[in-house]
Every structure is written in C-alpha cells, then in structure tokens.
Amino acid sequence: MRFTHYLFAAIVCLVGFTACDHNDFPSGPEQSTFAYDTITVPCMEDLPYISVHTAVAIGKTLENQATTDQEYYICGIVCSFDKKHADGMSGYGNAIFYIRDSQTSSVEFEAYRIYGIDNKPFTDMDQIAVGDTVIIRGKITKYNSTIETPQSKNYNAYLYWTSNSSAYPMEDVKVFMEDFTTLDYWTQKAIIDPSMNVWNLKENCVVAQAKPDGQAVTSEVELVSQPINLAQYNMQTAKLTFQTYFQQGNAATVRDMLTVRVTEDGKNWDEMEIPNFNSGTLPKYVNDTLDITDYISDKTQIAFVYRSTDEVAPLWNIKQVSIFENRSGKPICTK
C-alpha cells in the first residue's frame, strides 16, 4: 500500500514593503499607509532573491542593450502600468508595469512584457493589479536609461509569485491517496459475524463479496481506514473520490447495500449514499465523488460498507481512493 500526504508548510519572508507613491496607486489614507509586514512566498533556492534597488544597481553596471546571463527573483510592489499596452494584454498575453520597494523609494524597475504564472500568457487584466506584491523571475537588461526585464522571440521574464489570488488557476490538490498495493492502512470490521472477512486485494484494487462456499450469505463488513489528519492542511473543502463497479444485482438494489461511512472523531459515523453505479452487467469502473468537508479533522476516517443477503451478494470492486481539495494553484514552500 502506498498513500501520500503532501505537506503544505509555508515559509514567511519578512519584507518592509509599503505601497508605492504613484498616481496610479489607489488614493485614500488606507492605501497611503498600506503595508506588507509579511508575505508568504514559495521556496526560492535555485536563484538569487533580490530587491528592486539591487536589480536596478545590477542593471546600471551593464553596457547599453546588454543583458545579464543570470536570472533573478525580483521582488517588489506594482506601482503602475504602461497604459499604452494594458488593453493589448489579452492579445499578446504579456504585461508591462513598474515596481518599487517602498512608498518612499524613487527607484523603479520596469517589468517589460512579462508573462503570467508558470511562464504562461496572461489571460485577464485582473490577474495583475496596482498594489500587488510580486516576484518576477527573469534576467535584467539595460535599454538606454531604463533598467528592465528583456523580451525576445525566445525569452520572456514571468510572474513567479503574486499576492493576487486571481492569477492562479484552481486545481485539485490531493492530500491522501490509496492505490491498494496492500491493506496495511485498512481494517475489516464485521458487524453481524465478527469472524467474517469479505475484503481482498486484487490487482491494485480491493474486492468484496460474501459468498463462502459459493453461496450468498447475510453480512455487513466495513473496510475502515486509519485516522487521516486532514486538519494539518488547512483545508476549506474536502472531497473523497474513488472508482468502483459491482456485478451481480442491479443498481437500485445495491444502492442500499454498498455505501460509505465517514467520521471526524472515530466515534460518530454518518452514512453516505454513493451517487454513481454501473449497470451491474459489465465490469466497467465509474467515478464517484463525495463531499466530506464537514468531517475535516485530525481524526477523519472513511469506511466502505459492504452488505449482502442470503439472496444477493454483489461483487464490489474499488480502486484509486483519494481525498483532495479544489484550491488555488498558488505555490507555497513544500520543504
């Protein structure tokens, strides 16, 4: 059995940034004193992490139209856009804007035609805005008197990180996965006959059927997971997903016989109906997803419940069990 817990432990970068003093920055006393005391950033160990002041100082050492061989992570606050190019962002997928270190700084760096997150074109102007704290990954070039990122046919600097959540796509983040190479993570619990075992491994899936000696018998046997600590992931939602099919019986009959139970404390269990079943004739897997948001805790457990009668003992297959959250793809440190 292999199950994977992805740990999302953020690092905090202490930066004394305040909003830029610029005509394009929102007016008002709240914005004029706006400050980032801390920002949560991803691990950045492969390249130097520099401020706007440092980026400009590096650029000034270059010959005109020369570019560094080195790439950098350049951190700052968006102060303004090149309005001449703002409306064209959706057509070209790049953005031109300016960043500074602080409100009182007079040093400005131009992010010239950079791409969005993951070095992919911007698709919406809302993905970048004045006041955003950003980290740009790119080289530094000197173009006449302007220090900026270079842009060419084969190279664009890009937005490595931003405080603007709309820049990140939503994605399914798995925090638990079971591929059933063993049953070490699971326990069989028989409700009617304590000696009965119906769950067995078969080719990276788990199979249940109550037919000792080839005859259907009455049974109720759970396959219960160990406690899963979902609380550590700061999840806002949680979905349980798996693939399943049954044979022998019909969907209307097995709907009450094959179910899922969930608990947040290991004591109080709620039963959930499985939404999708195959017809029961062909061994064809279907996908099922259950919302288990209400059971997020450090002791979450799930149980697949198999029932049979002396007339109907369906064959039930389950594989690829996982728990995930649909969340922003915003990167944070996984170290």
Topology, element by element:
Layout: E1 11-18, H1 29-32, E2 35-41, E3 49-51, H2 52-60, E4 72-81, H3 83-86, H4 89-92, E5 95-100, E6 109-114, E7 133-138, E8 141-143, E9 146-148, E10 151-152, E11 155-156, E12 158-162, E13 170-178, E14 186-190, E15 199-201, E16 206-208, E17 219-225, E18 239-247, H5 251-254, E19 258-263, E20 269-273, E21 286-291, E22 301-308, E23 315-328
Secondary structure: number of strands:
23
Query: Helical segment tally?
Result: 5
In terms of quaternary structure, the protein is single chain
CATH class bucket of the largest domain? Mainly Beta
The parts where pLDDT drops under 50 for at least 5 residues are 1-19, 21-39
Strand-residue proportion: 35-45%
Structural class estimated from helices and strands: mainly beta
Shape: elongated
**Percent helix among the residues?**
under 10%
What is the distance, rounded to the nearest whole angstrom, between the alpha carbons of the first and last residues? 24 Å
Radius of gyration: 28 Å
CATH topology of the largest domain: OB fold (Dihydrolipoamide Acetyltransferase, E2P)
CATH architecture of the largest domain: Beta Barrel
Number of domains: 2
What is the H-and-E element order? EHEEHEHHEEEEEEEEEEEEEEHEEEEE
Mean pLDDT figure: 83
Please outline the major beta sheet. Answer: 6 strands, mixed
